[in-house]
Amino acid sequence: MCNMKPRRFRLSYNAPAVLTFALLCVGAQLLSLLTAGASTHAMFSVYRASLLDPLTYLRLFGHVLGHADWSHLINNLMFILILGPMIEEKYGTSNTVFIMLATALVTGIVSMVFFPHVRLLGASGIVFAFILLASITGGADGGVPLTFILVALLYLGQQLWTGLTVRDNISQLTHIVGGLVGAGLGFVLKREGWSFRSRR
User: Fold this and answer.
1) What pLDDT, on the 0 to 100 scale, is given for residue 200?
2) What CA–CA distances, in Å, run from 93 to 47, 106, 167?
3) Is residue 117 assigned to a domain?
């Protein structure tokens, strides 16, 4: 009779970029609670401000960590934790970090230019970048996946329709820009052997 030792239960930090981002978002939300929202206004939301203020540049990236409330945060993190590990497994940790930083920067700049009096916060831009990027991921190299075309049409159509017919505090333009960043980087990353940095 063979004596087999039971396997030890072990947690795996399987997607470092995505999990670290999620933890930073939770940390930003807790800090917002402790400071009555002052930290979110100072570091985790973006709006037009003086280019001489160093925090302006921090906010261009940090706005994706801030959220209006726990519901806003949880809704975004659900999508990111579902799609992110697949993207990180496919493209590598450094590329995933680059995608998130690029999306934050582009959506932050767009918000500052086109919505100077609106305070933008939340990871929705990254969510939509991941949605379109994930729809590209399954296609064969050199081809445009039909799933990508369908998702892009449905997604862009829904965002445009919402932007035209619904008045709310969600920036549909930012969602569209985030999706376009994800789609653009997805096609670049699919080129054989191309990488922002070496994969993990």
Assistant:
1) 45
2) 29, 20, 37
3) yes
